[in-house]
Amino acid sequence: MFGFFKKKLDPAARTVLTEPSEPTPSVPDMASLHQTSSTVSTTGDSPATPPRQENASSQHVHFAAETGQPGFQTDDMNPHEQSWAARIKRGLQRTREQLGQQLGHLFSSGGKIDEALYEELETILLTSDVGISACNTLLESLRLRVKQQHLTEAGQMRAALRDALLELLIPLEAPLNVSTHTPFVIMLAGVNGAGKTTTIGKLAHYYQQQGKTVLLAAGDTFRAAAKEQLVAWGERNGVSVVTQEHGDAAAVIHDAYSAARARGIDILLADTAGRLPTQLHLMEELRKVKRVIQKLEPQAPHEVLLVLDANTGQNAVTQVTAFDDALGVTGLVLTKLDGTAKGGVIAAIAKSRPRPIRFIGVGEQMNDLRPFVAAEFVNALFEEPAA
C-alpha cells in the first residue's frame, strides 16, 4: 500500500485503493454484483464486476483492453448514432408533451392575444413546474415583447415565449472548467436516490473522453453497498477507487486527495451519502468533509455539485436552497429528465436560486450526461410536434 495511506483520520480504518482489474468478456447483472460485493471493499483484491446497464446488451460494451481507450465504449459513441441534440429532444419528450404540446395547441388556436390567452398560458406554465416566480417573470417578459414587436395573433407568441425562456436560462449555462487545479476536486452531494453514484460514473467517463485522469472516492459510508457500487463503476470505467474499512466520509476523501495528488491525477470525484436537508447531523457531516479537504488544499473542493432528481419538481428548488446554505453549492447536475414531465423546474431554479447547471442527464447511456446548453434545452422543448 502507498505510503500516504499510513496516516489516517480514523486509526481503526484501513484505506483500500481498488485498481481496475483485467476486463471480463461479459457484464454480469446486479445480482452478481451483490454476491461479490462483500469482498470488494474489505480486501481490495476482488474488484466487483460492473452492473449491467439497463436497455444495453453486453455486445455494446468494450473494455479498455479491447479498445485501447480508457474505460469502455457504448453504442452512443457510434458516429452513426443520433446527435446530442436529437438525444436531448428524445430525453425531454415527457416535458415537451406536458409543456410544448399544450403551448402548441394554445398558439395554434388562431385567436387574438388577450388576457384570457395570458391566463391559459399561466396555467400551462405552472402545471409544468416552472414555478410562480419564474412564471411571472416569463409573462412580464412576454408582454413586453408583444408590445415591442406589435404582436396581435396567438401564433406569434410562440417565438416570443421561446426567446423569453432562453433569456431566463442562459445565465445558468456555465461549463465547468477543471483545468485550474491538479487534482481538481469535485464533491457531490444530494438527497437519497438523486443519482449521485451513477452521475459519478458518467462524469468519470465524460472526463476520460477529454483525456483526463480520474480517481473516485467512496465517501458514501452510510448506504448499504454504496462502496461496492462505486467500485463497480470504477471497474467499468477503468479507474481506481479509494475506500476505507470502518472510516467516515471525511477520512476517505482525505486519503483520496492524498492519493490523487501523489499520482498526479487530474480530477478527484468524491461521493457522499445521500441525506435530507432536515437531517442536521448529516448536513454537518458534509461541512466536516469540506473542512477536512480544505486543510489539505485551502481552495478545495473546487466544485460542490448538487445532484438533483428532476422528478422532484419544485422540491428541487428547496434542495438547492438547503444545500447551498450548508455547503455553498457551486454547480448543479439535473438527472432523470427523460423520466419526468417536470423539466420546467429549471426555470424555477433560474429565478428562485440561480446556480450554474453544469450537466443534465436525459437517458441511461453513459453519453446521456452532458453540459447544459440553454439553447439546446429550449429548442428541445419547443420542437414542433410530429404530425
Short description:
The chain is an alpha/beta fold. It has 14 helices and nine strands.
Please give a structural write-up.
- With 387 residues, this protein is an alpha/beta fold.
- The protein has a single domain (1-21, 83-387), classed as P-loop containing nucleotide triphosphate hydrolases (Rossmann fold).
- It is built from 14 helices and nine strands.
- Strands 1-4-3-5-2-6-7-8-9 form a nine-stranded mixed beta sheet, sandwiched between helices.
- Strand 8 (357-361) and strand 9 (369-371) form a beta hairpin.
- Helix 6 packs across helix 7 (157-169), helix 7 runs antiparallel to helix 14 and helix 8 runs parallel beside helix 9.
- The longest helix is centred in the middle third of the chain and has 17 residues, at 132-148.
- It is elongated, with a radius of gyration of 23 Å.
- Mean pLDDT is 78; it is low at 1-13 and 22-81.
